[in-house]
Specification:
Two copies of one chain form a homodimer.
Chain A lengths: L1 E4 L4 E4 L7 H5 L5 E5 L4 H4 L2 H11 L3 E5 L8 H14 L3 E6 L1 H13 L26 E5 L11 E6 L4 E6 L7 E4 L9 H21 L5 H23 L4 H14 L13 H12 L4 H17 L3 H12 L8 H18 L16 H11 L15 H10 L2
Helix pairs in contact in A: 4-5, 6-7, 6-8, 6-10, 7-8, 9-10, 9-13, 10-12, 10-14, 11-12, 13-14
Chain lengths: ~400, ~400
């Protein structure tokens, strides 16, 4: 193990913490740009409570609404224009992963003179990785992407049909204000897709990481076991605040870098899914539910012992009288059963997606991140042909 | 769960990373104060390698040597004097927990005009918690205290026989440069005491924390299981770099706050041990080995289900046909067996300590941290009489 870890985000976690927003924001600036999505935070009253807290702390407010799912670079540019015009010195994201990712890039684009698409990696020669951004405060209303406490953002370009990402230290939120009460109104299907996103963040590191990381293995297994247990409860009863709390906490820990520290983490399933959802407007977590078991079955053959460990430690399956690969496949079946049990799709056909663009998705998936052979990093790295094979098995 | 988490230390981990020290230090200042202990880092050549790296990066060096085990406030004052006289703008700790803790307080005391003992909590009316410190870089040469990546320091006052602590955000190291190669020369007994320190950081949170923290439970269990497995190997063969690496990593994760986030962590065993080692010059980790099983047997009665979970998940014991308390006690026996197997003492008599000062230790243990009843926080909180009972059972 040889690695670095750094995450300076101040996490404030717990039911009811939204009321602290004004007090927190005033430490970072005088006028905030609140970024929101399609309007659910207004319907739920969360927006009004946030504004009231800000105003009572003497913080002025401007607004950027209507960040779409799979947020577009045009929305980033629009947000940055508002921030500049209104003289905002802080960006507050209130919403899910799309809103948080767009907010991070709005915070960076506000201080950048060029085309904001330059800041996102999309195979260009001169990727301008951001070094400055307005202070960012994240207020997640969905447990899923983990964007609340990390330095990443995923942004789409509707023109070129590319969905890609950037990671930069200036994108770490100053504060992640994580109030599980805000997720109580998330519908059943979105709750399930969020749980799938959380688990995929952890499984793909678990399966693509290096050997010799026993503590990280246990951390990862702990998050997966807990997300399965409490995810089921949150889907079954959305008003269960204890379940919402545990799932929200799982979201934070699944992708703030700590579970993956030192594992040489690679996110191949996310990369393939991004290619898919750039072409089809499907929910990210639902796309992952389809792709992750297909991916697991493909790579299990190269590393059956690792998948056998997954089967044993996550699902308590016994390996007596079974070879590792048989046990591995039984574990993946169990995992797929779980996804189905909470209402996730597990086949591309459920989205009406056929094999017409499989080569294109494979091409797009390796566009930004690839090794010297042009393969998607992972264990093993996937060639474009491998990606097509995975996609075919998910039809 | 309602909590905050913040840890901005930049962790650089891995065998061979010591060579990066100069390059790292020059980002934080021009002249460093290197703080060391009894001389082992000079004998091992680590000091010379550190100085060579610093000099080649154009960083000037001053020295504060001879920080003793259970470091004293007089050494802190001496170090701060040197830092001021030499015009140092960075403090680098190269050593174990004592050296790191003293270095943190030297960094704070250099910028503080009063008596540095004011900065340490010891029951005084006006505890001056530090708000400023020189940048700190930790280079641990022992896997034990976790001080390398947290904001705490434990300091003793030889005059008043008080050993106490402070926690402050300014004490977070800017960088923790953690090179497991530097621990290859640690003798067998100190290696074992370090493993015990690591495990105790986790067990006392695990047993004293709130209910409803399933992810943190798994994190804690993962650290304990791994520290037991790899600790045995590191004690058996000190030259096993893989074992040294895993134990060093366990040290970092056991007390950088992440495993305990949201659990309402209390460290009762550490508090009792501090009282003991303020009066007797015993190694902190060895003191913990004696006190922890005694403490566990005492509090298990109040929370047998938690200890039964420990027995099942850490040692794989089966609870079939056993009540929780029986299973709990069997788990604690196993834990004590493990401590003995790596050469730790488990009785006060092994230090030649009798019951003469038991009331005094109990008094000292609650001096700094106590609840409204004067009890030592934990689950349950311990009265002074409880502490004496625990001590008696460890005779």
């Amino acid at each position: 193990m040889k690695f670095e870890f750094y995450n300076p985000t101040h996490l404030i976690f717990g039911a009811g913490t939204l009321s602290q927003l004004g007090e927190i924001a005033q430490k970072h600036g005088k006028k905030v740009l609140i970024v929101t999505g399609g309007g659910s935070v207004k319907r739920s009253g969360v927006f009004d409570r946030a504004v009231a807290s800000l105003k009572s702390a003497g913080v002025a407010v401007a607004e950027c609404t209507d960040i779409e799912p799979n947020p577009r670079i045009t929305s980033v540019a629009r947000g940055a224009d508002i921030a500049r015009k209104e003289g905002c010195d802080v960006v507050i994201a209130i919403g899910g992963g799309s809103t948080m990712d767009a907010s991070k890039m709005i915070a960076a684009a506000t201080l950048y003179d060029g085309d904001p698409w330059n800041l996102i990696g999309h195979g260009q020669d001169n990727w301008v990785i951001p070094t400055r951004a307005l202070p960012i405060i994240t207020v997640p209303t969905l447990a899923a992407t983990g964007s609340e406490m990390n330095k990443g953002a995923v942004i789409s370009n509707d023109e070129s049909k590319v969905k890609s990402f950037v990671q930069a230290n200036c994108l770490f939120p100053k504060v992640a204000l994580v109030d599980p009460e805000l997720t109580l109104t998330v519908p059943k299907d979105q709750t399930a897709y969020g749980v799938c996103d959380i688990i995929t963040h952890v499984t793909e590191g678990y399966f693509s990481g290096i050997d010799g990381t026993p503590i990280q293995d246990r951390f990862a297994e702990g998050v997966i076991i807990s997300a399965i247990e409490w995810g089921q409860k949150a889907v079954a009863d959305g008003s269960d605040i204890e379940a919402r709390t545990q799932v929200q906490w799982a979201s934070v820990v699944a992708l703030n870098g700590w579970v993956q520290a030192g594992t040489n983490y690679a996110p191949p399933v996310h990369m393939i899914e991004h290619a898919l959802s750039a072409h089809h407007n499907i929910t990210h977590g639902a796309g992952l539910a389809v792709l992750n078991p297909a991916y697991m079955r493909f790579v299990a053959k190269a590393r059956p012992d690792r998948f056998a460990q997954f089967a044993r430690r996550i699902f308590g399956l016994s390996g007596v009288d079974k070879d590792d690969l048989t046990l591995a496949m039984a574990g993946i079946d169990k995992f797929e059963d779980f996804l189905r049990s909470i209402g996730c799709p597990t086949r591309l056909s459920e989205f009406g997606i056929d094999d017409a663009l499989f080569s294109q998705y494979a091409e797009d998936a390796v566009l930004v991140v690839h090794d010297e052979n042009g393969h998607l990093p992972g264990r093993p790295p996937l060639s474009k042909a491998d990606i097509v094979t995975v996609l075919k098995s998910a039809l």
